[in-house]
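Design request, tokens follow.
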């Protein structure tokens, strides 16, 4: 974990909080190759988001997986 920013809340102007995070990502690029076939099924509680992801015209050109762990620490 490493500190990335200092957070200052408007309701607590005299206190700062360190924002610590650790990120790990995996990226799969160039899904546009003819030999690559990707099928993505998405179900979300928001119908607009469902419509965006399930639109056949929205073909992904890259996929990534992000694992992020964050922690706020009062200073």
């Amino acid at each position: 974990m490493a500190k990335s920013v200092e957070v200052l809340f408007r309701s607590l102007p005299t206190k700062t909080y360190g924002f610590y995070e650790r990120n790990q990502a995996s990226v799969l690029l160039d899904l546009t190759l003819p030999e690559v076939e990707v099928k993505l099924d998405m179900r979300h509680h928001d119908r607009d988001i469902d419509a965006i992801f399930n639109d056949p015209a929205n073909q992904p050109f890259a996929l990534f997986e992000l694992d992020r762990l964050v922690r706020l620490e009062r200073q």
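Comment from the thread starter after seeing the answer: thanks! The chain has a mean pLDDT of 81.
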